[in-house]
């Protein structure tokens, strides 16, 4: 993970501030940084989104392709995640340096989307046992400014909301089955992302925990708890990260905070996405120049 | 399967015979009554043996009643790979963990022999780091490798217990032993079950593994996923797991004591053997 | 006490030679004596057949899993047997993590050659439907503790696990054309030949049986002889090293035949006691 070198004095300064519920940039312990979300930034994907959370910049592209369903789940499509840590983010990611981090993030995403309630995979089935849609979700880390997991989950949710999968019809012939793509480019399946969870990372600094840590704050925290919360407040994944250990009481507190913060996160994301949807083609695309 | 030139080639694709069992036979087999009669806080009987591999610095074998068999070995401290590790920074030791399953350990298809599990290896590392005094091993690395011979449920929890015991057996400085428990929640809702067996784990809607440093009462590792529901439900599961880990702790300590006693009684006879050898060399 | 340990580290060859002069070895064995062999079958219930063999400290576990596959194009009435020897990090500090190293690959190839040449199990027996469905037996041998003489232990574990394999009955459903497996009816495999390996090392023109890891490091050459139950030769594996006269080779073969009888007695007793349960 990208890291900064902090002196002991700086660490003590951050820790004392956090005890008083005042962080270096003036936020309280449960505040997120200002986030910008934009969808449909890459035109030749089925769906895409870009999230800028402070200095963290993530780009997600979703491509829908046809494939065969897995043997043990013949009526469902599947999601494949791939995370690319670009060397733009930090020089440590040059060459294969970012591979470990990339696999860790990809595995966490698989874990979150592994249960049935997150996303309805039966929609992606075309012919049981023969054809289904496979959604390849590619995450690109453009800049690393702390709190990667939260930003990535927001971007993935926005990209899935934005994904348009073309409708196909199955024609039964005597020779076999043929698949026909519909001619209308706007006739497509949209995914229901109501139950897609978002990740909230709570880092423990001293005796308190904070949400949305910057790189400096991450360097001060020894242990953090990663939870994924759905919009209804249910938790779908819990993971402890970092070198230190956590007190059981703090874990209970962190879970409650995570649920509160997660619900707020979901509602704000949903408002932004709905707004973009309503503007439709009249929306001014900012892209990478803004 | 991509052609691996380093192994003896087999067929390109193969399917497990379990996929072809007709569904009528499967329904007859599944006993739904088993769930109702199981006590959710019951721990499976655990067998732990320390110090059984001759070539490893420290080793431990843990077997659970459900059939889970895990072997763990520790090597090191060795010189850290990658030189001094980026110049300055903290001169701390490193812990390198590997979690592997034997190809025949799963109930279903055979897994590829070379497949590693990076996620579980990372979980193992994150759970063991709080327990080891890495500051005492600067610029060195400790290698912990866990091998699951048979997966009968709660494999990661058993591997964590075995890893803690193996580190203690190797003489690595620890803050405390690691005791770990797994839980799962059946899809019909209801209570969390402690230390599930393989069938319960497979059918579960949510799973959780917790690693605890018992005498310090600190959670060293936590990994869970699934439709657990509200945070209250997860909190209840965590409390159950902490209780289970505290109950496991005396068993783990006893197995370490037994191993130490064995080593102590073996030493006097070793001294006799070694005394004979110089007699042989000096005699000729 | 300390002097012996120091001498052993500084001059291992001389240390070893002192023992050989007295016609014995550092662990107290004679030159022609094998270490205590213990075999345990059927401990891994997820595998179709399994065996754990301890040859002194060397421990090898073999698990066999049977799966379905399409028979090869050029011999449509044959199944597959795929051996694989794994030397993970935990068995010894000399092995590094990653893809299989030379020793593991050589051992896998040796097992594959012996299985092929001695026809332990006829591949035709593994075929279910000609050209469409056949059994694949994946035999994975994992070494848990490496203290020399890997090949003997692997061979013994493989044989014991094969004897323990129970294959479920398969029938082809007429309507769907798919296979149907009945897990309640199980039959063991027909084993035609029972190969047993005996390894020797060459040191100073002496032949020493069942080397430990230390002895293997000091050896100038190795030989492995595989014999079957009729006293016939299945395989001779001599990968380079110092030379061997014809007479010595004969010695090896006769010792290997005696070893075969010992191992066969052990395995038969084990199978009988398992059946009696």
Automatic annotation (TrEMBL), chain A:
One Gene Ontology cellular component: cytoplasmic exosome (RNase complex)
TM region(s), chain numbering: none
Domain Exoribonuclease phosphorolytic, residue spans: 32-166, 195-260
Signal sequence coordinates: none
Protein name as it appears in the record: Exosome component 7
Alphabetized UniProt keyword annotations: Acetylation, Cytoplasm, Exosome, Nucleus, RNA-binding, rRNA processing
Chief location bin: cytoplasm
Pfam family for this entry, one: RNase_PH_C
The gene coding this protein: EXOSC7
Subunit note: Component of the RNA exosome core complex (Exo-9), composed of EXOSC1, EXOSC2, EXOSC3, EXOSC4, EXOSC5, EXOSC6, EXOSC7, EXOSC8 and EXOSC9; within the complex interacts with EXOSC2 and EXOSC4. The catalytically inactive RNA exosome core complex (Exo-9) associates with the catalytic subunit EXOSC10/RRP6. Exo-9 may associate with DIS3 to form the nucleolar exosome complex, or DIS3L to form the cytoplasmic exosome complex. Exo-9 is formed by a hexameric base ring consisting of the heterodimers EXOSC4-EXOSC9, EXOSC5-EXOSC8 and EXOSC6-EXOSC7, and a cap ring consisting of EXOSC1, EXOSC2 and EXOSC3.
Example GO biological process: nuclear mRNA surveillance
Compartments where located: Cytoplasm; Nucleus, Nucleolus
Gene Ontology MF terms: mRNA 3'-UTR AU-rich region binding
Similarity remark: Belongs to the RNase PH family.
TrEMBL record, chain B:
Bias type Basic and acidic residues, positions: 1-10
Domain Exoribonuclease phosphorolytic: 43-173
One MF term in the entry's GO annotations: RNA binding
UniProt keyword Nucleus present: yes
Broad class of the protein's primary localization: cytoplasm
GO terms under biological process: nuclear mRNA surveillance; poly(A)-dependent snoRNA 3'-end processing; rRNA catabolic process; rRNA processing; U4 snRNA 3'-end processing
Region annotation (Disordered) ranges: 1-39, 263-284
Keyword rRNA processing: yes
Keyword annotations from UniProtKB, A to Z: Cytoplasm, Exosome, Nucleus, RNA-binding, rRNA processing
Compartments, record wording: Cytoplasm; Nucleus
Protein name in the entry: Exosome complex component MTR3
TrEMBL record, chain C:
GO biological process, one term: rRNA catabolic process
InterPro entries, alphabetized: ExoRNase_PH_dom1 (IPR001247), ExoRNase_PH_dom2 (IPR015847), ExoRNase_PH_dom2_sf (IPR036345), Exosome_comp_Rrp42_subfam (IPR050590), PNPase/RNase_PH_dom_sf (IPR027408), Ribosomal_Su5_D2-typ_SF (IPR020568), Rrp43 (IPR033196)
Ranges of residues in domain Exoribonuclease phosphorolytic: 33-168, 195-257
Pfam families the UniProt entry points to: RNase_PH, RNase_PH_C
Keywords: Acetylation, Cytoplasm, Exosome, Nucleus, RNA-binding, rRNA processing
Primary location group: cytoplasm
GO molecular function terms noted in the UniProt entry: mRNA 3'-UTR AU-rich region binding
Protein name: Exosome complex component RRP43
Organism of this sequence: Eublepharis macularius
